[in-house]
Amino acid sequence: ALRHIFQVEESFFFVPTIAVNPNSNTIYILIKSDLNILFMIDPYAEVQEIIKEEGANIVSTGSGPSAIAVNPNSNTIYVTNRADNTVSVIDGTTNKKIDDIPVGILPSAIAVNPKTNTIYTANERSNTITVIDGNIDAVVTGVIFDVNPSNTGHIKCDNKEFATGVYRHIKLYIQYKAEPNNGFQFSSWGE
Known about the structure:
The chain has 191 residues and is mainly β.
């Protein structure tokens, strides 16, 4: 039988949340103290000491970490931070924080869809759900762009063509536009 002991400094306070990356076999826990940290646990080590120094198994998060989610496909860890209304994005390969993404007020829960690389936070005080695109680590919105009939035009953003009639997540404040194909012109817009 496996036996694991984790020794914790008295000044630490565990947040009652835990996540596992099945691909890297790493366990993640949150700790509040004068440092707000994510601690990576090696499940094969018999004894691990959790100390206040950043190192190979400790990463600083935002203020008031409250929940963890892992995308095993991208080896990325997401931590909600209630005190500063952000989500910390952590690279599971380098164990370094990549970014803090602003979300709604008091993010208290988080979930990842690894298939679509989409992250969802439940924001307790603002009564909202924030959707984050894990490919660009930014808050997105969902829109259906449709050109009907489909052979009359196309959707373009940043010189990239997109299919029409499909639901797409788009980064906020990016200009998307519908353009007519040769020989056609648009006469009306609908919602």
